[in-house]
Amino acid sequence: MQLTTGYIASTAIYVAVKLRIPDRLAPGARTSADLAKDASVNEDSLYRVLRTLTSLGVFQETAPRTFSNNLASSMLASGTQGSMYDMALWMSDPFHFQVYADALYSVETGKPAVDKTFGMPVFEYFSKDPNESEIFNNAMTMFSGVVIPAVLEVYDFSGIGTLVDIAGGHGRVLTSILQKYPLMRGVLFDLEHVIAGARPAIEQLGLPDRCATATGDFFKAVPHGGDAYIMKHIIHDWNDAEAVTILRNIRTAMNPGGRVILLESVIAPGSQPDFGKIIDLEMLLMPGGRERTEQEFRNLFEQAGFKLTRIVPTKSPLSVIEAR
Question: Annotated active-site positions, please?
Fold first, then answer.
């Protein structure tokens, strides 16, 4: 029953995050009537949502119909250190519910359900829906903020003159690396509508002289002259043939002796719980890609003219996968 009603819990999380209830509780406990008035919603309905979430370990009821944040709900407040606000908003929003209603289509055909739901590939849809695109890009930036400190803790980027971030979104990964390695230069590469959202962040960090931007289609070409090319959660978006095409374009563009650095889940053998197995279904229904095992990554690299040199686990859900 807990598994079959999981979407109800997801919906309750969405309501709470969309209404910024964790933010409203940041100063301290408040009644559901006070919160409802503040958020311009029905008091009894909001109370019932918060009662359910409290029973699931999100929020705490300190007195009848009076709620405060606990550790879990405080992580859903926006703008705080380690906040999961943007990811929670993305993963539980109505866009996902519509796509997952067509999950059987993916199982029957092997094709992304989003194509049936919205009549187009997911990244094409984002280019036509600025609001959903912003929600997605904010979530990816948030996830980068969780992953990149763990990556910087275990992987040495020194010796790289120019690092090219392929499909780097708003640049959280690249700018974080550049901040730690002041002699390095970077190139942030993505679609034009995505790069437009990245430029203000690069300016704000004082990195425009060291972080160039470029736009284009990585299935056709990527920026030339990089000593290393990094991709966070990009290769998992694509099937094997598409992933090999991207990697071959990188091999053509990179300087001699260059390397590819992937930040991805690595699925271990066996049936143990693994967050990558959940995201694998997201890849099946959304872009049509997949999470991969070590051997599957090795095979991809070999087809593209690389050799997998090492996999470095991190404290985040992703590992650093290096090929030369």
Answer: 236
